[in-house]
């Protein structure tokens, strides 16, 4: 984050506060950005903060100095992606469980955000260090090992070690030191803000009115009075942080994964010999899986110079077919070159899952029938596996939609063999369909090229209709040459009869005249998202029978572009 060319700010839409900051890089924080403030205020702080107190250079280049300074601090603003954050947090927790402690948990949250909490989403990992400190040379060694593990993910975190999980959480969030080792439980907690107790916002406001700002001030008050006036939850939180009440940790439990090893009699780099040994190892591996299908596995080779070299394989669906696993590993090795002869081979399952069963039909016309030549879930998964092995996991992708109105950014891709992403997507609830407004219905009536409504029978598409967006979205919009037709240009706004007319377009040497069109649909980006984008989109049917999705760029020369085709 420190090496980013521009300050980074993440925002999310708040029902009452609008777009608010949920996270920022240290550089943006030094400029005054804080979670919870409006994105407009954060952008203003970053854009103009460096210019405060900086005199303009004398001479003709003084104005140039000010503009360069402002451009250099233009923030990088992105919408927060909770799904990606959750997946990344699970991966980091799994790595810490493997390298640091077997007892690792992700924090659990209440239904309502705590006081001082901007987003109600887990962002803390808890580790029980009982019996492992001596393996790292003490608690300082544990902190160093944790930083090395996080650095592998490109992350830097605030770490704290205390007598209990609640106290460690409090120091990690509200202690000003990046790494903190608690020596005296009560004395170290006293200067912390009362937000470290993870209390309700209403309770926090009451304590503010009473002038209680720190944990130490709260500890000195009688518990009975606190329970009567502020409720039992506050007293319970206080008992948790003082170690009087133990909070159970929901430890991430991963079943031990099977592995099999074969030591060669002599070093070899013959792929046929390697494939034969791997085939035997896959049979041993499947026999140890206890009926759970293999999703991800790694094939490790020990080389003659004692180095280790590995090849990973990810599958679209779990399988117990040992021969198929061997074929995937062999196909992947054919596209790579062994660095040197190998002396030993180890296969280890990294991820497994329950096998899925499908009731097969007795009728041939069924797509998954016994004699059917149609595509089945198994054939689809094997196709994805074969493509992934040959082309790489980043080349075989799935698509998920997001709420960005800009068509180029309305989707994100993910690897089809990344099961953490797929599992998280399955857990997401599908948004309920919203009723169509009268304005939408009005804009969906077709117009002829001369601006008159088409009165033939027509069913207006809903907001969820596939015809709202083209089947094929062009990666780069194609410029459309406007052909003068004697009709006035529609202009950027729909006002008056002439505004309901569209010109003819020339594409690849052919002239296409608009027979019917629907629109416009205005799509524009916020000023905080970088260069402004303002477009008017139309769904048009040409005299050649083409159904296009075109837009007029309202920034600059008002040029026309073809952005998609409906078929």
TrEMBL record:
To which species is this protein native? Roseiconus nitratireducens
For this protein, the record's InterPro entries field holds: DNA/RNA_pol_sf (IPR043502), SulA_CellDiv_inhibitor (IPR050356)
Question: Which GO biological process entries does UniProt record here?
Answer: DNA repair
Q: Where is the composition biased (Basic and acidic residues)?
A: 432-444
Q: Which domain of life is it from?
A: Bacteria
Per the record, which residues fall in region Disordered?
426-453
PANTHER family, sorted:
BLR3025 PROTEIN, BLR3025 PROTEIN-RELATED
Q: What is this protein called?
A: DNA polymerase Y family protein
KW DNA damage (keyword) present: yes
| Entry-linked SUPFAM superfamilies | DNA/RNA polymerases (SSF56672)
What are the record keywords, sorted?
DNA damage
């Amino acid at each position: 984050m420190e090496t980013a060319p521009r300050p980074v700010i993440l925002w999310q839409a708040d029902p009452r506060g609008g777009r608010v900051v949920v996270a920022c890089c240290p550089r943006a924080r030094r400029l005054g950005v804080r979670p919870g403030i409006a994105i407009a205020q954060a952008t203003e702080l970053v854009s103009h903060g460096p210019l405060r107190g900086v005199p303009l250079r004398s001479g003709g280049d003084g104005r140039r100095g000010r503009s360069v300074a402002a451009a250099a601090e233009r923030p990088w603003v992105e919408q927060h992606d909770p799904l990606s954050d959750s997946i990344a947090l699970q991966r980091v927790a799994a790595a810490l469980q493997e390298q640091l402690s077997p007892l690792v948990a992700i924090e659990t949250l209440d239904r309502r955000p705590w006081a001082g909490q901007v987003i109600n989403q887990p962002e803390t990992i808890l580790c029980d260090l009982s019996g492992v400190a001596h393996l790292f040379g003490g608690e300082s060694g544990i902190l160093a090992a944790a930083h090395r593990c996080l650095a592998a993910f490109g992350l830097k975190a605030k770490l704290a070690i205390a007598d209990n999980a609640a106290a460690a959480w409090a120091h990690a969030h509200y202690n000003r030191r990046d790494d903190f080792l608690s020596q005296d439980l009560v004395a170290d907690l006293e200067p912390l803000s009362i937000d470290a107790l993870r209390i309700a916002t209403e309770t926090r406001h009451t304590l503010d009115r009473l002038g209680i700002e720190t944990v130490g001030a709260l500890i000195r008050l009688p518990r009975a009075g606190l329970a009567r006036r502020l409720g039992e939850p506050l007293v319970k939180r206080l008992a948790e942080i003082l170690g009087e009440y133990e909070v159970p940790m929901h430890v991430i439990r991963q079943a031990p994964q099977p592995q099999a090893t074969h030591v060669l009699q002599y070093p070899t780099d013959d792929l046929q010999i390697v494939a034969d040994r791997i085939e035997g190892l896959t049979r041993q591996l499947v026999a140890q899986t206890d009926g759970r299908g293999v999703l991800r596995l790694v094939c490790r080779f020990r080389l003659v110079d004692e180095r280790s070299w590995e090849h990973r394989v990810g599958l679209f669906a779990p399988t117990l077919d040992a021969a198929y696993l061997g074929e995937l590993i062999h196909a992947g090795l054919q596209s790579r070159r062994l660095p040197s002869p190998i002396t030993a081979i180890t296969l280890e399952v990294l991820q497994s899952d329950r096998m899925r069963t499908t009731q097969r039909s007795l009728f041939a016309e069924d797509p998954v029938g016994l004699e059917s030549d149609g595509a089945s879930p198994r054939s689809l998964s094997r196709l994805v596996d074969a493509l992934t092995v040959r082309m790489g996991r980043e080349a075989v992708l799935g698509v998920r939609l997001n709420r960005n109105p800009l068509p180029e950014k309305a989707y994100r891709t993910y690897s089809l063999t990344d099961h953490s992403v797929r599992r998280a997507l399955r857990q997401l609830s599908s948004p309920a369909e919203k009723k169509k407004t009268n304005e939408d219905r009005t804009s969906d009536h077709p117009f002829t090229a001369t601006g008159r409504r088409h009165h033939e029978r027509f069913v207006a598409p809903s907001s969820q209709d596939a015809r709202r967006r083209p089947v094929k979205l062009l990666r780069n919009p194609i410029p459309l040459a406007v052909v003068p037709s004697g009709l006035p240009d529609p202009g950027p706004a729909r006002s008056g009869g002439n505004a309901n007319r569209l010109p003819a377009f020339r594409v690849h040497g052919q002239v296409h005249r608009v027979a019917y069109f629907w629109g416009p649909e205005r799509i524009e980006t916020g000023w905080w998202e970088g260069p402004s984008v303002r477009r008017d989109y139309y769904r048009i049917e040409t005299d050649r029978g083409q159904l296009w999705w075109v837009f007029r760029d309202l920034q600059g020369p008002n040029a026309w572009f073809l952005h998609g085709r409906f078929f």
